[in-house]
Amino acid sequence: METTKGETRRGKDETKDEALPDFSGLPREIITDVFLRLPAKSVGRFRCVSKPYCSMLSDPGFAKRHLALALKKDSGCQKLVVPSRNLHSVDLDSIGDGCEGTMVLSGVKDHPKDGLESVSVDWVEMIGSSNGLVCVYSQKGSSNGFVCVYSPKGGAFLHNPTTGESKRIPESMLDIVHACRHFGFGFDTLTEDYKVLKFVASDEGYRSVDVYSLKTDSWKRISGLPYKRLGCNPGVHFNGAINWVVKLHKGHNPKRVVVAAFDLKTEKFRDIPCPDEVEDCKYLKAATLKGRLCLVYDSFDKHDDIWVMNEYGLESSWTKIRLSMSYRSMTPLWSAKNSEEVLLQLDGKFVLYNFECKTCRNLEFSNVTFRKMFVASTYEESLISPNSYGNA
């Protein structure tokens, strides 16, 4: 059958869209393998080359393979993310150069596209990060750092700072969220699902927790918890669980201060006793230090020590480490490769502390205004999308 010129031109264009651009006749498998080895940021730029490239490089399966390879080879780009009225990120490799004195950092401004750029928010807070996704919430209205009331314009988000994609998390079973820092965020390797936890406060303490699943885009409630009090910080994702320091109601455990570890696979809590020496401390939080769970103070009094658990879950493996400096509130954030230097968020500032030499140097931001109480975090650049993950 004879075709018109318009039909011929349209057929050629469709063929061009379906095929990847020719790189010296390389097969598609080799082209894909090359992209799998590129940094996530670079791969993101190639999405703009053509529709076939955008389709291939946006595929959830490709994103998972890209992340797995980067984690296996430890070749990904790690970044520090600091919340203020927006998110500010800094390449962590740029601060571990061993120079002396104060280093001035310039953070790159970033924010979730789904909602935060179109409304005026009072502040952005970090909940946590996993596989390149950061979980944040925006505050509207008055807040003293401990209580947050969500407005229709505020809310919680899953956000990929590398790709700019975001997903607003639906409200949980309570419209008013008390003790908003009692959140946690992590990745369930069994079901390959991202989960957000939120403790529910009541007159009896914290007897329930709401669990959000990205795959189902819904919340469910787990009740019957024995917890009386929690600290004022999000849970830390470590060893397949989200960990908080909590105080138990009387009669549940001879040691009333424990690490409450929520197993993301079984969705059950396990209580890990804290050292006897911290039983009377009201302000303590869980963190991680060089691949180990640790306990650090978060109080008005000054301390010069931290506790490290050398074998996760084993009470007898708690070890005290004495520091050469005092602090009121401190969180280990990142460890430099092949170095004893650790990035610490210390009393509202950032320092690089050397555990071998017991020396430290200050880090300052040139373009970020911090609030008095904030939670920083780190993330690995990835192509994981919060919008398509459940359908992968």
UniProtKB/TrEMBL annotation:
Residues 132-357 form the F-box associated beta-propeller type domain. Residues 1-19 have a biased composition (Basic and acidic residues). Residues 1-21 are annotated as: Disordered. Residues 23-62 form the F-box domain. This is F-box domain-containing protein. It comes from Arabis nemorensis.
